[in-house]
Design goal:
There is one protein chain. This protein has about 80 residues and is an alpha+beta fold. A two-stranded antiparallel ribbon has the order 1-2. Strand 1 and strand 2 form a beta hairpin. The longest helix is centred in the C-terminal third of the chain and has 14 residues.
Length: about 80
Amino acid sequence: MQKDIEVNGKKFTIRELLAKEVDDINFDNKKEALQKQVMMSTGISLSDYENLTLRERLAIFKAINEVNGIEDFQNPAK
């Protein structure tokens, strides 16, 4: 599954992560975990990742959660 999004005039394609990719992420290091998830899901380079705005990164991460069936942690459950 994948989803196309547009933020600040930039287009990103978010793909579903494989379980084995997520297994290799060190979630004890939150910064590294976020970076790896965004880069693996979008295919962007480290340079592109470092130049994302906060709005872009948040929109990408929200789409990553949707594509991978992860509940939206930013909105409280009803």
